[in-house]
Amino acid sequence: MRRSLVVGNWKMNGSLVQNKDLVGALKQKSFPSNVEVVVCPPTVYLPQVADLVNEDSICVGAQDVSHQANGAYTGDTAAEMLKEFACQYVIVGHSERREYQRESNTTVAEKCLQALKNNITPIACVGESLEQREQGATLSVISEQIQALIERLSEDQLKSIVIAYEPIWAIGTGLTATPEQAQEVHAAIREQLADAGSSVSLLYGGSVKAANAAELFTQKDIDGALVGGASLDADDFCAIANSF
Ligand code: PEP
Question: Is any ligand 1 atom within 6 A of the Cβ of residue 208?
């Protein structure tokens, strides 16, 4: 079902003490009841953060999941394992993993399937590089990434995922796509998803902050945000969630 979501990707940041402080600060905040708020700590901290959150208004997600169910995959974490730690969401195919771990569109789709089999909502990330945008290839790159999901997921499965459009050039750079640039891509994704499109929440990610969130959220196909840097500050993250 299409819902409003604000997801914090903590990336490889945090410590037992910092996590406690951050979740403590978030629990003091009030979030709009129509917005689902998710925090995604590093895997090793999932049990701690799930315990700290321990309430309905903030959900916990992971930053990655294995494309396999179990077995000889050293260093990977299975979806079934994430589920044991109250994990409701998992980010898959973040551009940092596509780049540094060479994750392909096929692997990203397989990860989505593993998550779905374990009742975890995958947040599948897509996005173009600056070079691709400058060459006018944005929509074709995104379309190829979305097509890999369409080919491997059933329509019901597609309806259960979340997609995050994250232009690579806007991640951690302070550059944000204009609301119109983001809307153009979101509309194209929704159209490509055909009948499933109206059920899928589409998030925008890339230097989202309190100052630009409200304008992004006015766009008709933007259902929320995947937030990196600003999710490490409780005031900023809360302000983004309250920008709907
Ligand atoms: C991200 O990592 O998904 C992200 C969007 O990061 P930032 O908000 O820092 O650009």
Answer: yes
